[in-house]
C-alpha cells in the first residue's frame, strides 16, 4: 500500500471531480492494480507517472470502461459510478484521446468530431450546419483554423490529435484523458498542444495526462500521481516534487537506501580497440543527434526511463531504422549500415525488447529457434546438417543452462527466462562482435536474471562488445563499464567506471 | 487543388464512361442515341440494384459473395410459388424481399458475433442459396403470369421517342435511395466509419454491431429485389440464373471507385461502374464480329487499372500532409 495519507496533496474547499479509491484489478497471475487511489480536480492537469507495468494503462482502461474493476470505488462529481463500456464512460463525461489517434481517417474532420451526434433535421444529416459547428468549435476552443470538409487523413498527426480533443470536448467532457499524446509530435506541435491544454484547464476541465517525457510533466502538470508495480506510491504537487525524487519513486529506490554494490565488471582493461563509432547519428522523432563509441570487450549500458530513446538508439545502430543524419562506422568498414541484414554481416546481433513478438518463434523447437539466425546468414540453400544442428543446440543449452535441456522442446513451453536464453543462444551462434541486448531480463525471475548478467560479463571477458539496455539501475550499474544516460530522446550524459553509482545515474536520468 | 482528392476516383469513372460512349458513337452509326443509353439501363437494371447493396458492403470493409445465388433463389421461389402454387405476385414479391433481407441479416449476424471473415460466411451463403434452387427444381420454370408479363413488356415512354422498362425505374429509385442513405443518414455515415476503422468506430461509441449486420441485410434486400427484377427480365426461374454475377457486381463497384479496403466509395460511382460494364457489352454487340468474351477481357483490364490507380491514390497522401 502506498502512503495515501502522507503524500496526499491538500486542496481546501475543492471537491475532487473524480475520485478513485482502493482500486483492485487482477488478471490471471498479475496484480495489475493493487489498491490504487487517484483523484482529479477540475481545472488541473494531473500527470500519471510510472514505469512499465506500473498499472497506468490498466487504470486508464478502468476509467474508460474497457476493464471493470474487481474492488474499489469510483466517484464522479460526488456520485458513485460504475463504468462498463467506452460508450458509458463518454456519457458520464470521461473522454480519452489515445496515442494512436482513434478516429476514422477516411471521414472528414467535421464528421470525426460529430459522428454519432450529427445535427439532423427529420433524420437527414445537415452537413452545412455540421461543418459550421465544427469550424467554430476548432477555432474558438482550440485556435485551429482548417478546412473541416477535408478527410482527416489529409492532416498531420498533431492536427488529428487536436481533432480528437475537439470530439472529446463536444461530448461535453468534464474529464479529458490524454494518453501519451505527445509521443509522435515535434517540438512546435507539443507547444501547440500545451497551449490548448492550458486554455482548457482554465475553462475548468480536468485533464489526466500520461507521458514519458519528464520535461513535459514539469512543463504542464499541476500535480503528479505515481504508480509502481500496480501499487499507489503517492500524489504530489508538481512544484514541490524534485525530479530526482520523482524518478526514484518511479523506479522504486529511495535515494538514501541506495547502497553501492561491488562491481563485478572487470576493472580497467586499458585502451580498447574501437569497434563501433557513431557521430551525430539521429533520426527525427526517434532520437536526437548523439555520439557513441564502443570498444572491444566493453559493456556499455543505455540507461533512462521508458520512452527515453534507448530502443530507438539501438535500432539505429542495428539498421532496423534509417538514420536521417550523422555517420556510423563499424570497425574498419567505412560505410553506414542500412539494413539489419548488413548489420548482421558486419557482426552485430540484436536481441529485441519484446521477445514474444519480435524474437521467439513459439511453435518451433529450441533447436530450431537457436539455429534460425545462423541458418539465415548462411542462406537457406546451404542447410546446416542435422547432426551439426544437434551438436550446436546441445552445446548452447549446456553453456547457457537452458532448462529443460531438451533441444526438441517447443519454445512456447519454456519459461520467460529460458526463452530469453534461447534467443541469446541464437545470436551468440553467429559469433557477433557487438551484441545488443534490449531489456534482456524483463519479466524473468531473479535467478535467471543473475545468470544472464553473469553471461554478459563472461562474453565481454572473451572480447565481445555488449550494448546493454535495461530499466533496472542496479543491473545496469553492476554490468557496465560505461553508462550512457538518455532523457527525452537525447543522450544527456556518459559515465565511466569511476563515477558509476546508482545515485549518480538516477540524478542524470532525472536531469535538472 | 481544383478537385477534392476524395472525388478523384469517381471523376475518373465518369470520364471513362463518357469517353467509351463517345468512342462508340464515333465508330458506329446509330450508337449515339438516347435509346442506346437507356438500353444500357434496361439490360443492367438488376446489376445496378445489386451493386448498390454491394457498395454498402464493400464500403463497410466487407464483401458479399452470395448475391448471384440469392438472385437465382429469388427467381426460383417466385416462379415456383406463382406458377406451380398459384400464389398472387402481391404476396410473393414482398415475401421474397423479406426472405432476402433475413438471409443477409443472418450472414451479417454470423460475421459479427462469431468474428468470421465475410468472405467465408458469404461464400457459404452462396453455396447454400444456389443449392436451395435445385431443391425446388432442377429445371427452368417459365412464368406466364399476366403481372410478370406486364412488368416485362411495359414500356415507359420518355420524351424524344425513347423508352425504359419498369425495372429501370425501380433501379433508379434504388440508386437514389442508396445515395441518400449513404450520405444523409447516420446509418450511412456509420458504414463509412466502420470501413475506415472498426476499432475507432467502437471507441467513438458507434453502434458497430447494428451497422455491420444492417449492411448485409441491405445487400440481401437488394439482391432479392434484383432477383425480382431479373424475374421480370427473364420470365423464368432457374438454378443457373445469374451465375458468377457476384463477381460482375464487385467489378462494377470497384470500377465505380470504391476501395476494396473499405471506407471510401460512392453509390453514384457504382452507377457509372455498372454503365461502363454495359457500354462495353454494347460496343461489342455493335462490332458484331467480336465474341462476348471480350467483355470479360476488357473488364479484367479495367479492374487492374483501377486497382493500381487506387493504390497510387492511397500511397500519395502519406507523402504530403497539411
From TrEMBL, chain A:
GO terms for cellular component: plasma membrane. Residues 18-254, 271-509 form the ABC transporter domain. It is a peripheral membrane protein. CDD domains: ABC_Carb_Monos_I (cd03216), ABC_Carb_Monos_II (cd03215). InterPro entries: AAA+_ATPase, ABC_carbohydrate_import_ATPase, ABC_transporter-like_ATP-bd, ABC_transporter-like_CS, P-loop_NTPase. One of its GO terms (molecular function) is ATP binding. Coiled coil: none annotated. It is found in: Cell membrane. Pfam families: ABC_tran. Keywords: ATP-binding, Cell membrane, Membrane, Nucleotide-binding, Repeat, Translocase, Transport. This is Sugar ABC transporter ATP-binding protein. The lineage of its organism: Bacteria, Bacillati, Bacillota, Bacilli, Bacillales.
UniProtKB/TrEMBL annotation, chain B:
Keywords: Cell membrane, Membrane, Transmembrane, Transmembrane helix. Its main location: membrane. GO terms for cellular component: plasma membrane. InterPro entries: ABC_transp_permease. It is a multi-pass membrane protein. The chain crosses the membrane at residues 7-26, 46-79, 91-114, 120-142, 163-182, 213-235, 247-273, 293-314. GO terms for molecular function: transmembrane transporter activity. It is found in: Cell membrane. It comes from the Bacteria. PANTHER family: ABC TRANSPORTER PERMEASE PROTEIN YPHD-RELATED-RELATED, INNER MEMBRANE ABC TRANSPORTER PERMEASE PROTEIN YJFF. NCBIfam families: PRK11618.1 (NF008630). This is Sugar ABC transporter permease YjfF. It comes from Cohnella xylanilytica.
Amino acid at each position: 500500500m502506498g502512503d495515501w495519507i502522507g503524500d496526499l496533496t491538500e486542496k481546501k474547499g475543492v471537491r475532487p471531480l473524480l475520485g478513485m479509491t482502493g482500486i483492485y484489478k487482477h488478471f490471471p497471475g498479475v496484480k495489475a492494480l493493487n489498491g490504487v487511489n487517484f483523484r482529479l480536480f477540475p481545472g488541473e492537469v494531473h500527470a500519471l507517472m510510472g514505469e512499465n507495468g506500473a498499472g497506468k494503462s490498466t487504470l486508464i482502461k478502468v476509467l474508460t470502461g474497457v476493464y471493470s474493476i474487481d474492488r474499489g470505488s469510483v466517484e464522479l462529481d460526488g456520485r458513485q459510478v460504475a463504468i462498463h463500456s467506452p460508450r458509458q464512460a463518454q456519457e458520464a463525461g470521461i473522454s480519452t484521446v489515445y496515442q494512436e489517434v482513434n478516429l476514422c481517417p477516411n471521414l472528414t474532420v467535421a464528421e470525426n468530431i460529430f459522428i454519432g451526434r450529427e445535427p439532423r433535421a427529420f433524420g437527414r444529416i445537415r452537413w452545412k450546419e455540421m461543418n459550421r459547428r465544427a469550424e467554430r468549435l476548432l477555432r474558438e476552443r482550440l485556435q485551429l483554423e482548417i478546412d473541416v470538409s477535408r478527410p482527416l487523413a489529409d492532416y498531420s498527426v498533431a492536427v488529428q490529435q487536436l481533432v480528437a480533443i475537439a470530439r472529446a470536448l463536444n461530448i461535453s467532457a468534464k474529464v479529458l484523458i490524454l494518453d501519451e499524446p505527445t509521443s509522435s509530435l515535434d517540438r512546435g506541435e507539443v507547444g501547440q498542444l500545451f497551449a490548448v491544454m492550458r486554455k482548457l484547464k482554465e475553462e475548468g476541465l480536468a485533464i489526466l495526462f500520461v507521458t514519458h517525457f519528464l520535461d513535459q510533466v514539469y512543463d504542464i502538470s499541476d500535480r503528479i500521481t505515481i504508480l509502481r508495480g500496480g501499487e499507489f506510491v503517492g500524489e504530489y504537487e508538481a512544484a514541490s516534487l524534485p525530479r530526482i525524487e520523482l524518478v526514484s519513486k518511479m523506479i522504486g529506490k529511495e535515494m538514501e537506501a541506495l547502497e553501492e554494490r561491488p562491481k563485478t565488471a572487470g576493472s580497467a582493461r586499458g585502451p580498447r580497440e574501437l569497434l563501433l563509432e557513431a557521430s551525430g547519428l539521429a533520426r527525427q522523432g526517434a532520437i536526437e543527434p548523439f555520439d557513441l563509441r564502443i570498444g572491444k570487450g566493453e559493456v556499455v549500458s543505455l540507461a533512462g526511463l521508458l520512452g527515453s530513446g534507448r530502443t530507438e538508439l539501438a535500432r539505429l545502430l542495428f539498421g532496423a531504422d534509417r538514420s536521417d543524419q550523422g555517420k556510423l562506422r563499424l570497425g574498419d568498414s567505412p560505410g553506414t549500415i542500412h539494413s539489419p541484414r548488413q548489420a548482421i554481416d558486419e557482426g552485430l546481433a540484436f536481441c529485441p525488447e519484446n521477445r514474444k513478438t519480435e524474437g521467439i518463434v513459439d511453435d518451433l523447437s529450441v533447436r530450431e529457434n537457436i539455429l534460425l539466425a545462423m541458418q539465415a546468414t548462411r542462406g537457406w540453400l546451404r542447410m546446416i546438417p542435422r547432426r551439426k544442428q544437434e551438436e550446436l543446440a546441445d552445446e548452447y543449452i549446456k553453456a547457457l543452462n537452458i532448462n529443460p535441456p531438451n533441444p526438441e522442446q517447443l519454445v512456447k513451453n519454456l519459461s520467460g527466462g529460458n526463452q530469453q536464453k534461447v534467443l541469446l543462444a541464437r545470436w551468440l551462434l553467429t559469433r557477433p562482435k557487438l551484441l545488443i541486448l534490449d531489456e534482456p531480463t524483463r519479466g524473468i525471475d531473479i535467478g535467471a536474471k543473475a545468470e544472464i548478467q553473469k553471461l554478459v560479463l563472461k562474453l565481454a571477458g572473451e572480447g565481445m562488445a555488449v550494448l546493454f539496455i535495461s530499466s533496472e539501475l542496479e543491473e545496469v550499474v553492476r554490468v557496465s563499464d560505461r553508462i550512457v544516460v538518455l532523457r527525452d530522446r537525447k543522450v544527456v550524459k556518459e559515465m565511466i567506471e569511476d563515477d558509476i553509482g546508482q545515485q549518480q545515474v538516477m540524478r542524470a536520468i532525472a536531469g535538472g | 487543388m481544383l478537385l477534392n482528392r476524395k472525388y478523384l476516383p469517381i471523376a475518373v469513372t465518369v470520364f471513362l464512361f463518357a469517353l467509351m460512349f463517345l468512342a462508340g458513337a464515333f465508330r458506329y452509326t446509330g450508337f449515339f442515341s438516347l435509346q442506346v443509353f437507356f438500353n444500357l439501363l434496361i439490360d443492367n437494371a438488376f446489376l445496378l440494384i445489386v451493386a448498390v447493396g454491394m457498395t454498402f458492403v464493400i464500403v463497410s470493409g466487407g464483401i458479399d459473395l452470395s448475391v448471384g445465388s440469392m438472385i437465382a433463389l429469388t427467381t426460383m421461389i417466385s416462379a415456383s410459388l406463382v406458377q406451380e402454387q398459384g400464389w398472387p405476385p402481391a404476396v410473393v414479391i414482398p415475401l421474397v424481399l423479406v426472405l432476402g433481407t433475413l438471409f443477409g441479416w443472418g450472414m451479417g449476424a454470423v460475421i459479427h458475433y462469431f468474428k468470421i471473415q465475410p468472405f467465408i460466411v458469404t461464400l457459404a451463403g452462396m453455396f447454400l442459396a444456389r443449392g436451395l434452387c435445385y431443391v425446388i427444381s432442377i429445371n427452368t420454370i417459365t412464368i406466364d403470369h399476366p403481372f410478370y408479363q406486364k412488368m416485362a413488356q411495359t414500356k415507359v415512354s420518355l420524351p424524344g421517342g425513347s423508352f425504359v422498362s419498369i425495372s429501370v425505374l425501380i433501379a433508379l429509385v434504388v440508386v437514389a435511395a442508396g445515395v441518400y442513405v449513404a450520405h444523409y443518414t447516420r446509418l450511412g455515415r456509420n458504414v463509412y466509419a466502420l470501413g475506415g476503422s472498426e476499432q475507432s468506430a467502437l471507441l467513438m461509441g458507434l453502434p458497430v454491431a447494428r451497422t455491420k449486420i444492417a449492411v448485409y441485410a441491405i445487400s440481401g434486400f437488394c439482391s432479392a429485389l434484383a432477383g425480382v427484377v431479373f424475374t421480370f427480365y427473364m420470365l423464368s426461374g432457374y438454378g443457373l440464373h445469374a451465375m458468377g454475377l457476384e463477381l460482375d457486381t464487385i467489378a462494377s463497384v470497384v470500377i465505380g471507385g470504391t476501395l476494396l479496403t473499405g471506407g471510401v466509395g460512392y453509390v453514384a460511382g457504382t452507377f457509372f461502374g455498372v454503365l461502363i460494364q454495359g457500354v462495353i457489352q454494347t460496343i461489342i454487340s455493335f462490332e458484331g464480329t467480336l465474341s462476348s468474351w471480350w467483355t470479360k477481357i476488357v473488364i479484367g483490364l479495367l479492374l487492374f487499372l483501377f486497382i493500381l490507380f487506387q493504390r497510387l491514390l492511397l500511397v500519395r497522401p502519406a507523402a504530403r500532409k497539411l
